[in-house]
Each structure stands twice: as C-alpha cells, then as structure tokens.
Amino acid sequence: MSTMFVLHRFKLLALLLLANGGALLYLSLGDLKPMAIWSWTDIAGEGGSALLVLVWAGLLLKGRPAGRVTNLLFFGLACLFFSLWMDSLDEFISLPESLTLDHWLESAPMPLGFALLTLGIYHWHCEQLAISAQMINRERHFREHRLFDKVTPLGDAGYFRRQLQQALPAAQANSEPLSLVMLDIDDFSAINRSYGHREGDRVLQLVAQQILLNLRSHDLLCRLAGDRFIVLLPATLEAQALTLAQELQQSIAHLALKSAGQGERLQLRATTVALMARQEEADALLKRLNIVMARAKQAPQLRQAQA
Amino acid sequence: MSTAVWLDSDARFIAARGQPACLIDLALSRGIDSHRLLKGTGLFYEDLLEHDPLITARQFHRLIDNARQLLAADDSAFLFGQQLLPGHYGATSNLLLQADTVLQALQQLQRFKALLSPLCAPVIRIDEQSLYLYWLDSFDSGKNRQFMVDASMTAVTALCRQVCGHALPWQYHLMQAEPVYVEQYWVHLGEHLHFNSPTSFMRLPREHLITRAGQASAVLGRIAEQQSLQQLSALTAPQSLTDGLFDYLCEHISGLAGLEQVAANFAMSAATFKRRLQREGTHFQAQLDRARTLIATDLYLRRGFSNEAVASYLHFNDRTNFRRFLKRLTGRSPNDLRQFLGH
Q1: What is the tally of structural domains in chain A?
Q2: What is the ipTM metric for this complex?
C-alpha cells in the first residue's frame, strides 16, 4: 500500500489540491446552505458516485504497473471524480445565479474524462492482446485468476480440470483425438530437503519454463500438484503424445540447472506418461492417467528389486 | 498406573526449534510475514533464533492455524510433513535413521511420540498380513485435525522412504470425503487412497517391514536411544491425558464399568476427571466414541470379527445400539463398514 502512495505521490497530490481548490473557490464565491434545505438524495447520489470513482482510481493505481495506460486511465477517472465532486459541492454551497463558472467546472471535465478513459481502455485492450500472446500454452479460452498456481506462472489442477471438461465434449463432437501428457520429477522432495522450499519453488518455476519451450502453440500446460505437471494436447493421437512425452523427459534430463546458492549442478530426472482420451469423463481420465503414472514410477524400482 | 501425571494442552514440552521451526521455515520461504505468522502464539522469532524455547500444544496449534490460513495453499500440509521425519532433532532423529528395520523405526516413533510427533499420536497394530498405523489427536486439534493427519502421514511416508531407499506401497485411509484437490494426495502420498474412512490410518504389507537400505550402526543406535530416553524422562510425562485414556480404554473396553472406575484409575475423582477433559477441549463420551470406532475398525481389519462379535467386544448389549453407534460415527452400517474395510 505504501509503495502505491510513494510511486504515485505527485498524481494523488495534484488531485487532492485540485479538489481542495475547487472547494475553496466555491466557498469564497458563495454561501453555505442551511442544513434544512440539503437534498440528501442528491448528496448520496453525486457524493457516492464521486467516492466510488475515487476507489476505482485507487484500485487501478494499486493493481496496475505504472505506465502510459495506467496514466490515461487515472487521468480519465480523475476528471470524472473532479466533475462529480464539484457537482456535489453545490449541494452544500449556494452560488450566485449570475455565475457561469460553476457550470464549466461541473460539466467540462466530464467529457474530457470520458475521452481519456476511452483512450485508456483502447490501449488497455491492445496491452491485453500482447499479454495474452505471452500467456500462450498457459491459458486457453478463459481466464480465472482464482485458479492461478501460487508458485509457478501456470494454472492449477482446478483450472486444468475445467479446461478438460470443456475440451473433452468438444473433441468428441468434432471426432478429434485428445491426449494428455503427465510429467513428474523423480525424487523432487530431496531438493526441498537439501536446499529448502525456496530453492524447490525456483526449480519448479524453471522446469515450468523448460516444458513451455517444448510445446506447440495450442497445447496447455498446468501444474497439477507438487512436482507434477500436466499438458492438454488437443487434436493429438496417442503416438504423437508419447513422442512429446519422451521429448519432455529428455529435455528435463538435459536441463543443466544450477542451484541459486553455490551454483552447483542440480541433476533432474522426470517420469512422463501419455494417454489418449476415450469416451470418459474428465475425472475418470485424470484418475486413469494418474494410475499409469504410478505404474511408471514403480517400474524402475521393480527393475532394481529384481536385479 | 499409579503415576497420575499427563501432558496437558498448557504443558511446555514442544521444542520450538523442532517441528514448529519446520513450519515457520516453510511459511517464511513462501514470503509470509513473521509477525503475522506468530501472532497470538506467544512465540517470538528472535527468541527462536537465540534460545530454544519450549512451547505448549495450544501454542503450536495456534501457529499451525495461522500458517494454514496465511499460506492458503492445498499443499501446505504435505510440504510441512516432508520435513518432519526423521527431521533435524538430534538424538531422536538419529534414532530413527539408525533403526534396523522399517518396523523398528515405526516402533521408536510410537515410543518417542512426545518428542517426534507431539500433536498426533501414532498407534501401531500388526497382523499376519499387514501393519496398521492409526493417527490420534493427542490434544484438541480443532480445525487443524486434517492438516495434522495429512502432514503426519506424509512424514511417515518420507521416513520409510529414507530408511528403505525407495517408496513403500502404503495404503492411506482418510476420514474426509474426496477433496477437489485430490491431485495433492496423488502426488504426495500415492494412488492407494481411501476416503470416507471410519478413522485415519495407513496400511503396509508386512514383507516391507523388515527392509532397510544399507547397514544401521548398532553403536550409534544405542547412543541415540539413550539420549532420546534422557530427553523423554526430562518431560513431565511421556504422553497426553487423552493418549493415556485411549490406551486404558483399549485395554479395558470389554469390561468397562463407567466413568468413576476410569477416573479412579487415573487417580482422580469423577468430577476432577471430567473437568480435566473439559480443559482439554473434549469430554468422556467423545473419547469413548473415538476409542470404540478405532477398536471396531481394528477388529474388522485384523481379526475379521463378525458384527455380533465386535458388538459384544465393545460391550454393546444389543445389535440395534451397535448399529446406531456405527451409523452415527462412521455413517455406515456394520455390514457396509465390513465390506468397506475389505472383509
């Protein structure tokens, strides 16, 4: 919160001075109305709107990185606020009839504010397109920030499940194949144990980036849980998915990760499995894939035990 | 059982540098503010670094509560659990690492539970085929119950993995319904999950109990055991009141006369006994229900008892009462429960 006030102190100070100046100007020109003739509905309507616009401006400054689009949106909202503020002031102060200045102060900032806001929203839209292009392989069709993973820049299991619930019927309707690939880092808890959770989280972020580099433009990567990732492959046969799974496995094995502390090499190995969807529900498919993964993880142990 | 001394929720016996430190470390590494994390726990971050304060079960539960809410993630319990065992607790951790077999490691865990698992007591039962490891709250867990059971199960899984050198095929029975974030259980525990279970327990085929990777050192093991025993005897008591009550109930369930008899065994009047239980956030009937549920589960699992045999073992006079009891506590009729448990 404090960074918001520091970062935008000039903008906020200017708005405060302007609002104050307006109030002083009215007070010097007119007289206070007695409380008996205050119109409470007007005060609630105009004053309430002014306050809400101020809240919007605050949320905007707090939530968005500073920059051109933020400035445009802020100045647009500032004009709207000023106009509504002056409008609500004359509920308390009666101005001489001959004065025309008050009409200007109330009405002129409004269209200017709307023009700035429109311009800002247009550029915001362009910005969103640019961001969406960066979100490739991490997002499909819809966004839900409550389903963002807290560690990696990916969607979580809930987001993936909802995507799968949409994709399965669509694939069946179009008679297209749909496959999934699951990737699990072998003995990942050892990294958490030896290097701590912070390092473990960093490794997960880097692994997520590495997997993203190996995907096609229409694939979707999510973090299922812990060190387990899952990829949705639309219009893909099981053989292609298996190839991709092997590619991912090799790519993780060849990832020459260094620890953040001393920079020593962290050797990672991953187990990957692939499946094509049959006529089944999303939950059943995920369960089936999980069992295939469990078998794949046991296989090296069984070989060890037999040897 | 003449020693009438028990650990209660306000007994300072948990080393803050042990399990609590694991949780604080996890929360801080996720960017949680230390003041908010320790709010209301009576514990100070500087204290933890400079001294080795002992805290109460109540304080630890408050810390877990804070961490759970601030982390607000589905995987907190599992990440916490992975750090718990064998842990970094000196002699007691060495004791687990120097165990000859998985079974011995688990038995030591049960014996030194006040040091190694202060909030959640492991209870071991064995039959010809399997080992069953039940988890009981040693103190009133409130909303932390599931968190602690998940963490404890993860901890034992990690411990056995370290002792054996590879993952063991544990089966997990959990009391909650299948959660939406079931993937966390798949990844951190495994695919052998049974939800809606009458009580929380883990099961392992017996042949895995005698394994371990490499050779344990008998000398280091003995030293660790002696040091652990010293630590344990330095505590006012080896277990909590409800743990002690559970042991007593297991032994005497078939001939249980009433509250007065139980209280007398704990060298208290019935009124004092009730008051002590109330201070622990529970009451006698709740403890009796808990013990009976676990014993019924255990009889079905290990002995393959019929419904009538279980009912009479638990001192129920007629089938309707027994049926009503099971339905109320597990949501299943006796036959359903038998089938669910695989007999």
Answers
A1: 2
A2: 0.74
